[in-house]
Specification:
Length: 244
Amino acid sequence: MSGKGLIHAKTKMARAGVHEIAVDVFARFYDLLERDVDAIIHEDDVSPLVDVMELGDVFAEHAGEDIDPTALSKTAIIKLNGGLGTSMGMQKAKSLLPVRDGLTFLDIIARQVLEARERYGVTLPLVFMNSFRTEADTMAELERYPELKVEGIELSMLQNQEPKIVADTLEPLEFPADPELEWCPPGHGDLYTVLQTSGMLDALEAAGIEILNISNADNLGAYPSASIASWFEASDAPFVAEVV
């Protein structure tokens, strides 16, 4: 390959206003693709975790009606909400799918956050990482919950966008009939880039946020928990993942 495809892709991204850092991230992965580097972590190369703490033990250590909400007061909820529900016949954010008593994933998320704020007396910002395909629908639905907004912190941060690449030429796709189809969201791994490039990280830090509770928008089990926040803060761990 000549590398012209990357030049064309970077030019296209710059013209679309994609942040320079996001362009650099794309270029790194493009380079791996061009050199046919296998960047996949294969299952055979992964060892199972041992000594995994049970979630029930966390609650046993940090539970009760008098649980200290200090850790939760320094927490923000981040919901990854870039996916369309195309596999379910939808053409909008899958978080808008009704799941219980006419309530959508988004409705339940909003109510979980509002209930936690009232119970523990915390600010608990809620931020959706939307894609260019889910931003409009999601924000329109969130207008029904004006009390969710926290001063100085936006309810959403927009995922970056990357040009689709033609497999045999590695050139960015051109589809004049519908130019939006020339682009795709990078996926959930874009979170760290978006936190930085959107200014959200600065806004959260300015608000005193030290802990991020990150989950998919269709994971209703990842609700705001003062017990888990307290345990996490006490653990002094930089990162904890829930595994099943």
